[in-house]
Amino acid sequence: MPAVPDISPAETWEALKSDPDAVLIDVRTDAEWNFVGLPDLSDLAKQPLLIPWQVYPSMAVNGAFPDHLRKAGLTEANRLFFICRSGARSLSAGMAAQASGFPHAFNVADGFEGPVDAEGHRGTVAGWKATGLPWRQR
């Protein structure tokens, strides 16, 4: 099975813009969606699909993750772009999606917030927010 490729946030935005069947799947937790923010795809007439890869607060892997993708109406024809905080959980989610019959899985490199900066803060060095892509508080 091919590896899940990393794709930059800017390339993800362009793919979501140009492909009506491309979907951004945010695999972070409810707490992150509520307190950190969400990608805002309203300019593209889309919304991110919110399916946690790990369930808060136990952080156990969501065993029903592939089922949630199917219940959302996704098929093997969709290009799926997975995003988390920094790109680790989304890579795991993309690998699970591929293994479950979704061959067009991509990992959004550096995630929503990216790595920490010199002061220990996220969201300034790399990732969706630092790239300047639209986002909003929930």
Question: What is the gist of this entry?
Answer:
This is Rhodanese-like domain-containing protein. The protein contains five helices and nine strands. The protein has 138 residues and is an alpha/beta fold.
Write the layout of secondary structure elements.
Elements: E1 6-7, H1 9-18, E2 23-26, H2 30-35, E3 38-39, E4 49-50, E5 54-55, E6 60-61, H3 65-71, E7 80-83, H4 88-99, E8 105-108, H5 128-131, E9 135-136
Parallel strand pairs: 1-8, 2-4, 2-7, 7-8
Antiparallel strand pairs: 3-9, 5-6
Account of the protein in words:
This protein has one domain (6-132): Oxidized Rhodanese, domain 1. It is globular and about 40 Å long. Helices cover 28% and strands 17% of the residues. It has 138 residues and is an alpha/beta fold. The chain has helices at residues 9-18, 30-35, 65-71, 88-99, 128-131, and strands spanning 6-7, 23-26, 38-39, 49-50, 54-55, 60-61, 80-83, 105-108, 135-136. The relative contact order is 0.23.
Task: List the keywords.
138 residues, alpha/beta, Oxidized Rhodanese, domain 1, five-stranded parallel beta sheet, two-stranded antiparallel ribbon, globular, Rhodanese-like_dom_sf
